[in-house]
Amino acid sequence: MGVSLLHDTDLVLWVTLFMGMGLTLFLYKIFSHEKWYSLLLSIRALVLFFLIILLLNPVLNFSSEKEQELHWAIFVDNSASIKYHKTPSIQAIQSGVQSFVDGLSEKNISYDLYQFADKIQKVNGPNLEGKGVTTNLGIVSERIKQDENNLAGAIIISDGLITEGKNPLREFHQLDFPIHTIGIGEGSELVDVAIQSIDVPTVVLKSDGVNVNVIVQSLGNISDRLSVSLFNNRQLLGSKHIRLSGLGSKKEINFRFRPKDIGKQNYEVRVSSVEDEINIQNNRQQFNILVLKERYKVALLTGSPNKNTAVLKRALNRNPRIQLDHFVRMTETQFRPGIKSFWETPYELIIFENYPIKPLTANFVRILGKKVLSNQAALFLISGPNQSNNSLKGITSILGVELEEFTLENNPVFWDFTHERWMDEFELPPLHQNMFITGQNDSSYTLAITEFERPLWIRNQHENIRTMVWTSPDMNTLYFLEQKLSQTHAFSTIWDQSISWLLKTGGEHENFFRLNKNRFQQGEMVQIAGNQPFIQSSEPKKNVMITVSHNLKEILMRDILFNIEEQRWMGEFRAPGPGEYQYSISFESEEEPIQKGLFQVLESQIELNQVYLNKKLLTSISNQTGGQYLPWDSRDSLMIKLHPKVRREFKANIIKFNESKFLLFIVIFLLCAEWIMRRRRGLS
User: For residues 286 and 272, what is the distance between their CA atoms, to the nearest angstrom?
Assistant: First the structure.
């Protein structure tokens, strides 16, 4: 214990204190015959004493010493790679670790035992299975730093391979205790050939040439001539030979081909194996491409040329993928050019523009319906100035709509989109409406409504037939507004969305998403890419989500972010445990998915891509922290260097009298007591 004073004048003040106390004793002797007066003087002397104490501010220091026992943190690698080392076996590792910790207990050395791979777990004793998906030494460094105040040091027993996470070397250089490392396995890599990546577009036109870039990586000492082949189902599209040499190398191989069929096409890249290869599952990788038609035949039937006709033709002709045939009604039965070619040509889309003007005959409707069904053609009716509800009688069943009796003066109506993505994006002019319809079934969807909540723009899909109806003759108004106001894109949006949906330019969906492969290893990174083909756009307002399920149970959900530079959505997640999984991709806040699919996860082989002893890394960790690297067979020599270790901690408690509320309370109490006694005795 020590006492210290705050000021340089402490000596003078202490002399004053003792003089005051001496004076008090002198007065006490003089007036000792008066007991009450003696008590009064004693109280005043105490008050004076405590006030001088507060003024001097002496500080009392109390210090104590405490010993804290430090322990060792032992981390044992439990990843899949440790099973594939020839020496030591996983059983030998387990028994060796148990013997090591038993030796620590005999020497009364405190320790904590951990097993790690992709995760870390504290255990009572070694229970090694080698089932860890990846090796993450970064989580070891994090655990050490969390507990560094209580550690005498750490011991890492591993092959030193890192297949996930950050390099731990940066995290260890500030530690003030040693990290010893014990190496497991052989010093040279085992032999393996793997397809590292495949870069290929998600969507192409049938007429386009497709580039497939494949990167093949070798591990271990390989000097073999290998064949790399590309297959479409079982058909060989091409094969190339490469030579990999050295302890590890990469080769990039390019294939180019032209798809023969449209739709979703499956492909596979295969690499020949080498002798004593530890993993042949990574010698094959599958991918798929959505192949679209390069040209679509579209028929435009105009009942009577009007202000919309030129606008619609211009919009159709600007799309290089559309081959347009325009038929103009001259009389009830005659068109220019002749309608015969219309019936003989298979069209993917038929557009009625200001047509029919009069109700169609039952025979015409029957033939038209047969043509639509046989060609799987889509229908798009755009209302014109010469049309009304009466014009649609007889054709409503084909369009998938029902007529609605609704009387409205020929005044402009205000309208808005019902689709959330388009809200507040456009300056919408008032439009006239001369048709009043509703959807015929549950598959109908209203895209825009008027202020009277009547459908303005509606679409319908029944089985594989898509139809759409636009009920205002003022579509040209949107076009001219767009030309006048560059920030307004109402016409382009309506037109592009309509044609894309009707022609199924995206297959079943207008957004294309693809996993980078169909088959993954457990723990491997699954990458998702998606785009809106042939349409340049700014960043979409809606986020895209991917949901992964296994046996109808949702196991994860991830965001897919839109990359403006790449003009596509991109996302990733780590493949779960082995099995077959379902995934669905949807826009945020929308229940209906825009795409579904399957993928397969195989038992983890990631660890097998690198199976050797990374002595360099383990030695660097030990050297950086003042520890020692030891091979597995020399691990017992480390035991000699380990002893119980404690840390002495000194604890100081400081008491400052001027900060004591209790002392202040005593002074106030004594002053009050003196005042009361003086008043009772009649003293001032």
Answer: 15
What whole-number distance in Å separates Cα of residue 480 and Cα of residue 405? 31
Q: Cis before residue 412, ω within 30 degrees of 0?
A: no
Classify 541 as helix, strand or coil.
coil
Whether the predicted model's global pTM rises above the 0.90 cut: no
Q: Say how far apart CA 85 and CA 66 lie, in whole Å.
A: 47
Whether residue 304 sits in one domain with residue 431: yes
pLDDT in tens, 245-294: 766 678 899 999 999 888 788 899 999 988 877 778 788 888 888 888 88
* Judgement on whether residues 363 and 476 belong to the same structural domain of the protein: yes
pLDDT at 534 over 60: no
Identify whether residues 50 and 76 lie together within a single domain.
Answer: no
Residues 37, 80 within the same domain: no
531, 527, 532: which is closest to 558 by C-alpha?
527
Would you say residue 508 lies in a domain?
Answer: no
674 lies in the same domain as 553: no
What are the Cα distances from residue 39, in Å, to 18, 46, 334, 664, 681? 19, 11, 133, 21, 13
Q: Which two tokens stand for residue 632?
A: 């597995």
Q: 161, 117 in Cβ contact below 8 A?
A: no
Mind listing the pLDDT tens digit for each residue in 475-485? Answer: 999 888 888 77
